[in-house]
Amino acid sequence: MAQKPIRFTHNGAERAVFVEEGANLLDVLRRGVGDLTPKYGCGQGTCGACTVIVDGAPRLSCLTLAETVDGGRVDTVAGLAEGNRLSALQEAFMSHFAAQCGYCTDGMLMSATALLKDNPRPTREEVVEAISGNLCRCTGYEAIIEAILTAAGSGGARRAG
Amino acid sequence: MAVTVETYATLAEAQRAMAGGRARFLGGGTILMRALNEADPSISTIVRATDPALRQIRPEGGEIMIGAGVTMAELARHRDTAFLAPVARVIGGPQVRAAATVAGNLFAAAPYGDMAAALLALGATIETADGRRQPIEELMRPSGSGAGGLVAAVRVADPRGAFHFCKVSRVKPKGVSLISIAALLPRPGGRIERPRIVFNGMGPRPVRAAEAERALEGRSLDAAAIAAAARAAAEGFDPPDDALASAWYRREVAGVHLARLLTGIR
């Protein structure tokens, strides 16, 4: 199968990888780049576990043709922390027990990061809307919503963005 | 599953590459990439176009020109398409809206296609890659095989307050439509003139509710007219039984939701 070279900025670092034709961005991030933070949930655009930020907007990496990000910028959970220091959003997820099995967490964090970047002081309704494309089957969402609102209140938005 | 991806700078080149009839065009990917992830064996060649003109929104000759590749998120926040924002905002979740395109929605099978329903109600014009223009009805005909070419742009006039929309879903936010209703109700001098009412979810494609339109023509938007339109709402439709709702349920609630939409109009 033909392979195509693409380059993109991944959490601030330049990446050059070969991608198979038709490969989605999720596969390329996980297998090509080695970033295992975006998760494979459904492959159908339903669950949001693969959410990453492409050129500033939240996107489902499983539904993104990898070669369309050539020359662009891709941000994932792997880029949220600074060394050992978690972002305010990640800290808030921990302190609110906003993860149980954890499979949806990376997608939730990226949807929330995208929200807070554009809207540093969201209302509860705006938070609910922002994570409406992310399914969680454990928490009932309340802890996640509270965590995002807390991170927003602590000014975590700017650091996380 | 050997897939070939061909990328072209212009839509005209992409159109030529589609000539064999086997290639599939990639817009935002929310439908085609899903099929590809399922290893749909019918997909062998994917064609895409990178022409920035496909992403433009601009006023042109009294209408708004919306490039085929404009996303739901862009429609929702652009000043010139504010009248479409209530539709764009309730399609998918944020990630889908950042990818899904206006032209893709024209070809999205039910339960998708809410934007197509809105554009049908608005009487939009479809421009294809070869520059031809046709009324959106041509594209939406149930027997229609498509535009007869790649869609380059959608042209639509600002309805100046005469456009109304509601989406009925079980889950909010982000639930898919059981049905959605888009209505263009011009009322010069207080009387409804040439209304266009479109249901999505009452058949495989968005369809105009001819009987409901007839019930409203020439009348003022009062309780009697609304009741008449509600009674006529499901006339002529053969709605589907699916996992979202039964055909019976859709028939029962079509008029109820149309009446609510019309009653909410000031």
From TrEMBL, chain A:
Single annotated GO MF: metal ion binding
SUPFAM superfamilies (UniProt xref): 2Fe-2S ferredoxin-like, CO dehydrogenase ISP C-domain like
Transmembrane segments: none
Pfam families linked: Fer2, Fer2_2
Organism superkingdom: Bacteria
Record keywords, A-Z: 2Fe-2S, Iron, Iron-sulfur, Metal-binding, Oxidoreductase
Domain 2Fe-2S ferredoxin-type: 4-80
Keyword Cell membrane included in the entry's annotation: no
Protein name: (2Fe-2S)-binding protein
Organism: Acuticoccus mangrovi
Automatic annotation (TrEMBL), chain B:
InterPro entries per record: CO_DH_flav_C, CO_DH_flav_C_dom_sf, Diverse_Substr_Oxidored, FAD-bd_PCMH, FAD-bd_PCMH-like_sf, FAD-bd_PCMH_sub2, Mopterin_DH_FAD-bd
Key words, A-Z: FAD, Flavoprotein, Oxidoreductase
Pfam families named among the record's database cross-references: CO_deh_flav_C, FAD_binding_5
PROSITE patterns: FAD_PCMH
UniProt entry tagged with the keyword Flavoprotein: yes
Recorded GO MF terms: FAD binding; oxidoreductase activity
Domain FAD-binding PCMH-type intervals: 1-161
Keyword Protease among record annotations: no
PANTHER family: XANTHINE DEHYDROGENASE SUBUNIT C-RELATED
The protein's name: FAD binding domain-containing protein
Taxonomic source organism: Acuticoccus mangrovi
